[in-house]
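Running this now, will post back.
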Amino acid sequence: MIILLYSCNPFNYELDNSIGSGTGLISDQKSVEGVFQNFLYSYTFKDTTIYGQLLDKNYSFIYRDYDLGVDLSWGRDEDMKVTNGLFQNSQKLDLIWNNIVSITDDSTNIIRGFNLTVTFNPTDIVFIEGRVNLNLIKDNNEKWRILRWIDESNF
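Update: finished.
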């Protein structure tokens, strides 16, 4: 009986070498999927440092102002301020990437569906769905960056 208990010692663990051997939470952005992985990470953990690494220095965000009936845009600095405000003022962000609707052969233009749930507090929850229309570019380090984002959401 003592031998059986010794062999089943719950405090005698072996090192699990499989932990950390995967791709990890943050990508090196050397693949297009890595851009989406880091985007998801930045929203999940409200990490503006990772989010900022997604955007090219010449980045622009274009969205439709339905009240005015015109398309408006802003650059990288304004986008970082707006995103930081979203991260600071929300309790939780749940982003789901859906299927890629369209992608060019060289992966420089991608249209992909998404669902985003923004929880500001338990009684103020916003659901956003739509598509991102991204123009990507590789930097000098072969990392993909977002050059232009055309918002095609319901917001």
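The chain has one domain: 28-153. More later if anyone needs it.
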